[in-house]
Amino acid sequence: MKLLGDSSSLLLSLLLAQLHLLTSAFPSRRFHPDFDKLTNQTRHLLKLTQDLLKDPVFGTEVDHHRFKSLPAINSKVGDLNNLEFKPTLSQLHADLKSFEHHFEWLNRITRRQQHSSVPKLTDMISHIKSLINSLQRQMTRAEAPRITVPSPSLPPTPAYHWEVVQSSQELLQQFRLFCDWASRVFLTLKSKLPA
To answer: Which of 35, 58, 136, 171 could form a Cys-Cys staple with 190, CB 3.0–4.6 A?
Structure first.
C-alpha cells in the first residue's frame, strides 16, 4: 500500500513538473488581455481617423503624394495567416513610430496656421503614443527586437491652407488603412496563441 502511495505522489510530481514546463513554454495567457487592449486601442484610433476624414473639407481625392516616408502595407488579407509573431510586433511598432513622427509634424504645421483640427490631432497623437507604449510592453514580454526607425522624409512646410488640407487628408487616409490592417493583425496574432 505504501508503494502505491509513493508512486502516485511521484506521478503527481511528474505531472506538476510537466504542467510547469508547458505553462512556461507558452506564456500566452498573459498575452490575451494585452492583445485585446492593443486591438481596442487600434480600433479607437481607426474611429478617430474616420471621424476626422468626415470633415467636408476632405471631400476631394488626393492626387499627389507629399509624404515619401509613410509606412506602406505590402500585404494582402491572405498574408495574415503567415505572420510571424516577433517580427510582426517589431514592424508594427516601427510603423507606428513613423506615423507618430508624421502626425507630430502635421500638428506643428496646423498649430502655426491655427487650424481647427489641432485639438483632434493632439488627441490622436496622445492615443498613438498610448498604443506605442502598450505595444512596447508586449514586445518586451515577447522579447521582440525593436527596429530602428529612421527620421522620416517630411515634405516642405506648406505655404497655403489648401496644402495643409491635402497633407492632412493624405496622412489620415494612410493611417486609416494602417489602423484597419493593424487591428486585423492583432486579432490574428491573438488567435495563434495557445489557449
So the answer is: 35
